[in-house]
Specification:
The complex is a heterodimer. Chain A is mostly beta strands. In chain A, strands 2, 4, 5, 9, 10 and 11 form a 6-stranded mixed beta sheet that branches. In chain A, strands 1-3-8-7-6 form a 5-stranded antiparallel beta sheet, with no helix packed on it. The termini of chain A are far apart. In chain B, strands 2, 4, 5, 6, 9, 10 and 11 form a 7-stranded mixed beta sheet that branches. A 4-stranded antiparallel beta sheet of chain B has the order 1-3-8-7, with no helix packed on it. The N and C termini of chain B lie far apart (37 Å). In chain B, β4 and β5 form a beta hairpin. By secondary structure, chain B is mostly beta strands. Chain B is built from no helices and 11 strands. The chains are: A mainly beta, B mainly beta. The interface between A and B is medium-sized, with 19 and 20 residues.
Chain lengths: 108, 112
């Protein structure tokens, strides 16, 4: 089993839609969790950290379920500019492990 | 604030040749990472430095890859000799301890 797995995608959704991405991790000692966004041929950039209580930043909501070793990212009211690859990142100790990413295309 | 700098941005070489990449992290960031990202995959950590010491190099193919961070600032990653499967984007990132990683623009390597 891979350390971090994500929905394979791609997700093609119309503007205004709500879309959710899932991520599972295998190491129960994982301590912190992040969602990064990567545009085509660009470097990854931090979208948001994921806290145990769940957190929201505008149209983006991240949730963590430690018991199920599962992280989610919800995007509401999708914009064309949300089209990108979303990378789930899990940290334990000094190790950061990236998932393979889920590609999102928001269509006009 | 200046970001993570990398050079070159693009490199094309033939298999069995050598290549080196350079990274200058954000000033004051103690931790520096080198990742390999193959098309369609997430970044894979090759090596992580804390100041000038290696924290994790478990996924670095040490028969052909080497990296150093002399003086705990700039870093170089070398491949010698290159193989076709080394074609990828090599990303450098830096962070202050356990905080957000900031990535450079990457070096796109093509091995022919």
């Amino acid at each position: 089993r891979k350390e971090v797995e994500q929905d394979p995608g791609p997700f093609n959704v119309p503007e205004g839609a709500t879309v959710a991405f899932n991520c599972t991790y295998s190491n129960s000692a994982s301590q912190s969790f992040f969602w990064y966004r990567q545009d085509c041929r660009k470097e990854p950039k931090l979208l948001m950290s994921v806290y145990s209580s769940g957190n929201e930043d505008g149209r983006f909501t991240a949730q963590l379920n430690r018991a199920s070793q599962y992280i989610s990212l919800l995007i509401r009211d999708s914009k064309l500019s949300d089209s990108a690859t979303y990378l789930c990142v899990v940290n334990y100790g000094q190790n950061f492990v990236f998932g393979p990413g889920t590609r999102l295309s928001v269509l006009p | 604030e200046a970001g993570v700098a990398q050079s070159p941005r693009y490199k094309i070489i033939e298999k069995r040749q050598s290549v080196a990449f350079w990274c200058n992290p954000i000033s004051g960031h103690a931790t520096l990472y080198w990742y390999q990202q193959i098309l369609g995959q997430g970044p894979k950590l090759l090596i992580q430095f804390q100041n000038n010491g290696v924290v994790d190099d478990s996924q670095l193919p040490k028969d052909r890859f080497s990296a150093e961070r002399l003086k705990g600032v700039d870093s170089t990653l070398k491949i010698q000799p290159a193989k076709l499967e080394d074609s990828a984007v090599y990303l450098c990132a830096s962070s202050s301890l356990h905080n957000e990683q900031f990535f450079g623009p990457g070096t796109r390597l093509t091995v022919l």
